[in-house]
Amino acid sequence: MASTLIRERKGSRRPRTVQVRPLLVMASWPVIAFALFQLRWSDLYGAVTWAGLSFLAIVVVAFGYFGLTLSSGTSAEPGRPTTLGPSLVIAGYFLAAFAANGGVPLLMILRGQPYDIYSFGLPFLHVGMLAFSGFYGTRLFADFIKTGSRAALLQYMLILFWLVLIASRSAASFLIFSSVIIVLFLKRMTVGRFVAVAAALMAFVAGFGIFGSARLGFQISQSTGQSAANDAILDYAQASSEFLATGIPASFMWFYLYLSSPVANLMSAVTHADGAVCGRTCDLGGLLTYTLVPDVVGVRVAEQLGYQRFDKEAFLVQRDLTASTTFGSAIGYAGLVGALSVMVLLLAVSIYCMHRFDGSDIREVGLALLCTVLFFSFFENMIAYSALSLQLAIAMVVARPKRDRRPAMVVRRSAVGARLS
Fold first, then answer.
1. What is the pLDDT of residues 193-205, one digit of tens each?
2. CA 200: distance to chain centroid?
3. What is the pLDDT of residue 9?
4. Exposed, middle or buried by CB within 10 Å (0-12, 13-18, 19+), for 345?
5. Alpha carbon 372 to chain centroid distance?
6. What are the two backbone dihedrals, phi and then psi, of residue 159, each rounded to the nearest 5 degrees?
7. Dist CA 273 CA 282 (whole Å)
8. Of the candidate ranges 26-40, 200-214, 337-351, the one whose mean pLDDT is the lowest
């Protein structure tokens, strides 16, 4: 309360925050990823295709235009406070999942015990709980930044702790990224804060690589029965002489692969389409069910209708490097038609979210999740990836738009006027 009054008295001296424009996030990653791709630190990658480069240019122009012309809107004050109940539900789910799956995934990996990373979770609940955990974790962090609530921070750290324990780099990465966006929205970026955020990101990159090397070593030992070298990632990635000459630690190759291989796979997918506007098969049914709706729905519908999932191994530069941007699989199903369909859908969802969250009491949370969806679209189709897209869907459902609050504001003003009279 005191800090609010001080801000109001200072007026023009109110701290300025960064004007985050979510659609520019989508416009920026093709440029960054393509620049990294051009470093040629891996000998896995093929040549650039003009068709692929031209399509990425269309993406940059389309999202760049709307990113610059659409306002990120205003917030409603105050927002609804967070409560302990949802955090208890999340904790209860993960404890039950640990019991049902016979242990804690991270501990099992560190001990070298047999463990199937992709089978963890309670059936029919896991994806939904992952999405809810990410959404509520972002809400908790926004509440902490706004109010300084230690309870909100503790609950946020606990949710992040659960995501680390299940050895899910993607789920933890989503939450950390959305949290960084919250800071950009709500905090004035002084030099000290900028350095702190940069240091935190560098620490995350290092930890990301170290954990990736540990998991790769675990997978190698499971399949061969022999221990893997600490720099096994260099052989896996076919590190080029250019990378080796930099002296950068081997663990950082993970981050380079994750940021550059999607563009390499996208270029390969364009080559695989062989110039056909609708691809080799023009599988519009597969395009709709596997790429244009969340997979918790689309996969089940596709199985009922007999649509086959496109096998991306047909164009991957490396079998286990499956990320091909949000457009790779769509190109496999229906060539340029598929890629443009995904782009138009993602653009439409983004514009609707900008309108939906304008004036909402969870505006920063919703826009942070939208930024997360758009940023991680350089990995995979995040509309189809339910663990993230459902976070955005939850935010859209619970947001209270400005128009829904106007009657209540009128009533409150009338009551104040009655007292004064």
1. 677 767 777 777 6
2. 17
3. 39
4. middle
5. 4
6. -65, -45
7. 10
8. 200-214
Q: Report the residue count for the chain.
A: 421
Which of 204, 81, 58 shows the shortest CA–CA distance to 149?
Answer: 81
Instruction: Report how far residue 118's alpha carbon sits from residue 32's, in angstroms, rounded to the nearest whole number.
Output: 30
Q: Which are the contacts of 322, defined by CB distance < 8 A and separation ≥ 6?
A: 265, 312, 316, 380
**Which amino acid type is present at position 392?**
L
229 three-class SS: coil
Alpha carbon separation from 112 to 67, 134, 219, 226, 294 (Å, rounded): 47, 28, 9, 12, 34
CB atoms inside a 10 Å sphere around CB 362: 25
pLDDT in tens, 51-69: 888 999 999 999 999 999 9
Single-letter code of the amino acid located at 189: M
Q: Are 334 and 347 in contact (CB under 8 A)?
A: no
| Alpha-helical regions (H) of 148-190 | 150-165, 169-186
Instruction: Please report, for residues 119, 211, 240, the alpha-carbon distance to residue 122 in angstroms, rounded to integers and kept in the order given.
Output: 9, 24, 42
What is the value of pTM for the model shown? 0.81
- Angstrom CA distances, 4 to 13, 15, 82, 211, 413, stand at 13, 12, 19, 42, 20
Handedness of CA 236, 237, 240, 242 (dihedral sign): negative
What is the Cα–Cα distance from 26 to 379, expressed in whole angstroms?
Answer: 12
CA–CA distance from 265 to each of 32, 298, 322, 386 (Å)?
16, 23, 8, 22
CA angle at 195 for the pair 252 and 6, rounded to the nearest 5°: 145
> What distances in angstroms separate CA 351 from CA 63, 85, 287, 348, 367, one per listed residue?
10, 32, 22, 5, 11
Distance CA 357, CA 372 (A): 15
Residue 42 is given by DSSP the state B
DSSP state, residue 376: G
Residue 142's CB is within 10 A of a number of other CB atoms, namely 27
Report yes or no: 93 and 125 within 8 Å, Cβ to Cβ: yes
User: Are 331 and 140 contacting, i.e. CB atoms less than 8 angstroms apart?
Assistant: no
Query: CA gyration radius for the chain?
Result: 23
Task: Compute the distance between CA of residue 56 and CA of residue 34 in angstroms, rounded to an integer.
Answer: 9
